[in-house]
Amino acid sequence: MRIHFTADDLTRVSLAGEPDPLWEVLLSRFRLRDRVRPAAFTPWLAELRAHPERNARIKAGARFLDVLAPPAPYFPDFLTPREAGGGLADGLEAILRTPKGRLADELCLLAARHPLPGWVRPLAEGDVTTLTALCDGLRTYYEAAIAPCESLVRSSLAAERACRSASLLDAGVEGLLTGMSPLMSWKPPVLEVAYVVDKELRLDGRGLRLVPSYFCQRVPVSLADPRLEPVLIYPIEHRHRWSSATAGCRDLAALMGRNRSAVLSALDHCTTTTQLARRLQISPAAASRHTMVLREAGLIDTRRAGPAVLHSLTPLGTALLEGRTAGT
User: Fold this and answer.
1) Angstrom distances, CA of residue 216 to CA of 27, 34, 176, 248, 318
2) Where is the signal peptide (predicted)?
């Protein structure tokens, strides 16, 4: 995605100070649907597994999200209103007040991409009962899936914001945007963003709101409708997730799982997938799966050397093994 700035836009870049609860609800549902669960979210997933009653409460909201926000490039913008930046209650109230025409338009776009069940029709018509049920489901989902880990989410985002704010103070808005690499590449006056589809976004003096997200993974997310207030939800740096997670846990196996912690510990020097499999007495396929997850978590680097694939620890991976991520 290419985001086009004017001079006015550079004076209207903002960085959200609080997590956006509805974006976190939506993106956390994506994480629960991941075929291979990212290692950085292991503490959150372990918390859910430890309380089966929470999983039961999640299901009501998940049923709505699985239909309205499927694993595809498009989902309706009305699910993540700007007002949610002020808190969950404000966001849900904004969903309830979504104009009927907008509901119909956005759900029509969704229906063109995916078959929708019959209950979506009254939602598209602005039926208050259906809208209320949707909001109740999202509220229950948040209370069961996000609220119990709210301190972890907030501390991670606070570390991210402190880092970005320092860049802003030291080098201005352009320094902030430059520091977003490799997620984004600032080539004035265009910000090129790794994205799921090819897209142009012209700010035209409206500015850009940057919203760090705990549950966003791999690439940033934005609104589908370019007429809405420009916003970019982006994944926080891995080190901020890990530093918050390790604050209350120094047992690596408990933090990220016995198998993955064993793989990480085995990479004390550059190792091929085959060597790693032999060393841990696991299949090459299993070794490859574990290294993929650890690479996406920012803990190892992978490079090809001829026919071999070599894995090595990143500074963050080394710090995690040595129990000093809080200081990275």
Assistant:
1) 6, 12, 19, 23, 24
2) none
Residue for token pair 């993540």: 80
- Domain with residue 264: its CATH number is 1.10.10.10
Please tell me whether residue 126 adopts helix, strand or coil conformation: coil
Q: Report helix, strand and coil shares of the chain as percent, to nearest 5.
A: 55, 15, 30
Inside any domain, residue 11: yes
243 located within any domain:
no
Phi-psi region of 280 (alpha: psi -120 to 50; beta: other; left: phi over 0): alpha
235 in Cβ contact with 216 (< 8 Å): yes
141-191 pLDDT, tens per residue?
999 999 998 888 998 999 999 999 999 999 999 999 999 999 999 999 999
Classify the C-alpha dihedral 230-233-236-241 as positive or negative. Answer: positive
pLDDT per residue over 53-107, tens digit each?
888 899 989 999 999 999 888 999 999 999 999 999 999 999 999 999 999 999 9
Residues β-bridged to residue 191: 3, 186
CA separation for the pair 69, 277 (Å, rounded): 38
